[in-house]
């Protein structure tokens, strides 16, 4: 149910959601903070088994949405854990007016997880900003949509042939992990994004956990260097 990836970090795979006709697998991350409290990123559909596993690990204190496409199950988790704080970037808070947020995520981490989880706000696309995270204790980068390393097996089993072709040609596959072409094309002021990626790489991530696609379990640093080479291109 909850699988460990590194010290004080676990992930759980969820069901498949449809996004503009493409099947997207879902994944959430649980970090146990130094206080023992739990920080939950991009919560997936809460089954009783998953809720039981989470409860057995500690008190859920933070529900974190990395971008305005990752909010689907926040309300369900809020109902289960009413004492938890819910966090999102300004665009998510503006879009989800029916969800009560406790705090806005900005360029600096809030005191609740500063020094344990770093955050990098990519505001380059006016269509989709994203907060990327780095959990220091497990040396894990946590990425929602800015890297999408789908396996050949997943694409063959879930995407139609023409969409598979698009994914392959645009490097949305294991080993590359580029995001979709439309997101890349919308990226402006890339030097600022490159500085953030470099800063993340300088933290020496070993693992990269993504919301959609295959988890990178070793040499995340090399993976991220390659996964963001599209920033050097015109598209
Ligand atoms: Fe996503």
TrEMBL record:
Xref: Pfam families: DUF4336
Q: What is the protein's name according to its record?
A: DUF4336 domain-containing protein
């Amino acid at each position: 149910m909850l699988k460990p990836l590194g010290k004080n970090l676990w992930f759980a795979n969820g069901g498949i959601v449809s996004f503009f006709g493409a099947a997207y697998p879902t994944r959430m991350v649980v970090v146990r903070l130094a206080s023992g409290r739990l920080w939950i990123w991009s919560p997936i559909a809460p089954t009783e088994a998953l809720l039981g596993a989470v409860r057995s690990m500690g008190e859920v204190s933070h529900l974190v949405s990395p971008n305005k496409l990752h909010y689907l199950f926040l309300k369900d988790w809020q109902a289960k854990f009413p004492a938890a704080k819910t966090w999102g970037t300004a665009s998510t808070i503006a879009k989800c007016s029916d969800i009560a947020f406790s705090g806005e995520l900005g360029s600096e981490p809030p005191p609740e997880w500063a020094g344990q989880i770093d955050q990098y706000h990519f505001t380059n696309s006016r269509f989709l900003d994203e907060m990327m995270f780095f959990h220091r204790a497990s040396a894990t980068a946590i990425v929602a949509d800015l890297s999408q390393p789908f396996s050949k097996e997943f694409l063959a089993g879930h995407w139609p042939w023409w969409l598979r072709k698009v994914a392959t040609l645009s490097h949305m596959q294991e080993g590359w992990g580029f995001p979709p072409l439309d997101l890349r094309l919308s990226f402006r002021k890339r030097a600022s994004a490159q500085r953030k990626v470099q800063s993340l790489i300088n933290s020496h991530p070993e693992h990269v956990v993504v919301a959609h696609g295959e988890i990178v379990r070793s040499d995340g640093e090399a993976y991220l260097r390659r996964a963001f080479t599209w920033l050097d291109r015109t598209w």
